[in-house]
Queue: 4 jobs
Job 1
Amino acid sequence: MKDMNSGQPSSLPDNLAKIVSIVFHPLLIPLYGLAILLSAPTFLKYLPVEAKRVLFTVILIDNVFLPLALLPFLKYRNLISSFNIDDRRERIIPLLITSILYCTTSFIVFRYQIPFFLKSFIFATSVVAIVVSMINFWWKISVHAVGAGALTATVFSLSLKMHTPLTWYLLAVILASGLILSSRLRLNAHNPSQVWVGFLTGFLGISLFILFI
């Protein structure tokens, strides 16, 4: 396999880094976070199946399918040059659209009778999306790293709030975060500052909001 940018054969580490970047794409992180919240050994695990199905459906449509569906249109209008959206300026519109969709998800979910922790999680993701969009106006931040930090903070906050040791969950998200950050650096998609600031933005945005609101 050849690297799309250099035309040189891609190494195994590069290919693995690309796979990690796809599997842990930022658009998928809220789904992973919700799956953890509804499967971890807390009272949230016993939420009615219908309520779980509604939550997954809303997030899947609003925060995964719709943003992905809009990418071909943005490319057709020459608002982005590629689906990777590596250029900071090209990220402005997609990130703003994503922020609006996250806010829409929060509005929809807040109308349902579900535990406040879940509402806090979904609203916190909206706040983080808006913060990332604002930062991107001036500086290229790693959105993958933001997602990694948010996922780690979700498990950390759940463990503290529910007074439940989630050791294996924490180890899993920490390992995943290490893979994500390393992959972005390996692919030269970001420099260390963009990666670490991204991780801290996601971690602090989720944990501070859930723990203190």
Note: Confidence is low (pLDDT under 50) at residues 1-6.
Job 2
Amino acid sequence: MPATFSSLKSEKYVNLETKRKNGTAIATPVWFAVDGDTVYVISEADAGKLKRIRNNPSVRLAACSFDGKQIRGEWIEGTATIIEGQEAARGDGLLDQKYWMKRVGNLFQRWKKPRVWIAIKAASR
């Protein structure tokens, strides 16, 4: 039975694998929140992963260690979308609930780079 996003709920980090135009896979460990069939991720607006998602929204997720070097479990394929508005607010709230360090970081956000929210849906099989 293939892994689903619900299998990630208890994890602290996932590797978000995106692909360059030449097909090279780049995995980045990220904070995330699962809400039903959607995984929410936040990123700085100028991050390379956003450029790669805009070029190719097909991604993979796998539970990992904080540095992304140890993969735990199966890779789960999905489709990423950059989101705004109420959906972004929903994802942001879920990330705030899960990570106390994010809530602390929110206090300093006005001096930091702009952020972008990503919603990932499981790829249809």
Note: The beta strands are 14-19, 25-30, 33-35, 38-44, 58-64, 71-83, 115-122.
Job 3
Amino acid sequence: MRVKSGVYTRQRKKKLFRISKGYYSNRNNRWRQALQQVERSLQYAYRDRKDRKGEFRSLWIIRLNAAARMFGLSYSQFVRGLKKANIGLNRKMLAELALKDIPVFEQIAQKAKAAL
């Protein structure tokens, strides 16, 4: 008896065409082009989920550098002072404080400066 795979194949194709909806030109409605583009898109998505973490860390460091310079410290001096003062806040939280709660950040910066 021969095995028919129509239902499975149709489900698989429908899923892929749903993912490729909105792609340019024939990449959204021709099977081979859609398949290649979806595979590539998923690879980019996987890679960029990892890269996003580094981009946010860079953003926090830029913000901390700007905020620390308002209080007479460079970023590297600020971080070294934090380590010496045993202040264990991460860069994300420090950047949030620098944006939203300047008086608290100023106190942290003064403690870091005093520890140097």
Note: The CA atoms of residues 34 and 65 lie 45 Å apart.
Job 4
Amino acid sequence: MTYALAAALQQAVFDRLSNDADLLTLVDGVYDALPAGTAPDRYVQIGAEKVTPRSDKSGTGARHELQLLIVGQDTGFLPVKLAAVRISDLLQDTPLSLTRGHLLRLWFLSAEARRDRSDNSRQIILRFAAQTYDE
């Protein structure tokens, strides 16, 4: 098992999302950590990750389960759902290039839409799994 590719995978996901003009018309930004001060009206935040071993006799690998949080101060779910659809398309349609190792596969696991009663925001948690291999 290796955790060595976690940073490279996060950077590839961040780059893909933060450089997509279509996604950036739907959200105010993509963040690892929110900027200080008032949060944007609608944003994507890279969330939790769980990594488990997937090594075999050919090399060192890992399965990453990652979460992306889409948050909006909208009165309904449609704007955050449109952003979630774009994110899903971006991560599944084109392979990601890692600065270290290889991404063998990335796939959608689940999504959860919810309303945060503390601030009345609409939120979607997207969960993806990725299989990586380190050379």
Note: The chain has one domain: 6-134.
